[in-house]
Amino acid sequence: MPASAIVLFAHGARDPEWAQPFHKICERLRQSLPDTPVVAAFLDCMQPTLEDAIAQLAAQGIQRITLIPMFLARGGHLKQDLPELLGKARQRHPKLAFHISPAVGEVDAVLNMLADWVCVEHQAHTA
């Protein structure tokens, strides 16, 4: 049984197609880390919620969760909603340890990849 898991935390939307990129990332992570459970969890409109995802992982015996906020910036959802949700999760699952990474949009490697892609896209349509 794995001791740790990864949760990609995203906003959510009414349109189910909106979540496809997150599910693709989860699948790529599962291929790279086959012994690590990987789930996408959502703040609004989609399932599972962060609360449900954490509860499911805790029920599986997971001891540590790396939570990756899939947001471009650290706005209200990450400054207010996420700490509140994590506070409740810590009360319900006191044996779980959490590592909260920066929002993906605050990671230089991600920003560099986006900038590189914009350059390629621009050059492809201006040549």
How does this structure look, described?
The mean pLDDT is 95. With 127 residues, the protein is of the alpha/beta class. Helix content is 46%, strand content 17%. Strand 1, helix 1 (20-32) and strand 2 form a beta-alpha-beta unit. Helix 2 (50-59) packs parallel to helix 3. It has helices at 20-32, 50-59, 76-92, 108-126; strands spanning 4-10, 38-42, 64-69, 97-100. Strands 2-1-3-4 form a four-stranded parallel beta sheet, with helices on both faces. The chain has a single domain, classed as 3-Layer(aba) Sandwich (Rossmann fold). The chain contains four helices and four strands; from the N terminus they run E-H-E-H-E-H-E-H.
Quick tags:
single chain; Rossmann fold; 127 residues; 4 helices; alpha/beta; four-stranded parallel β-sheet
Give a quick precis of the structure.
The protein is α/β, with parallel strands linked by helices.
CA-atom Rg in angstroms:
16 Å
Stretches where pLDDT is under 50 for at least 5 consecutive residues are: none
First CA to last CA: what distance?
A: 53 Å
Quote the beta fraction: 15-25%
Number of strands: 4
Main pleated-sheet profile: 4 strands, parallel
Q: According to CATH, what is the class?
A: Alpha Beta
Strand order in the largest sheet:
2-1-3-4
Helical residue percent band: 40-55%
**Domain tally:** 1
Q: Which structural class best describes the helix and strand composition?
A: alpha/beta
CATH-defined topology: Rossmann fold
Q: H/E element string?
A: EHEHEHEH
Q: Assign the CATH architecture.
A: 3-Layer(aba) Sandwich
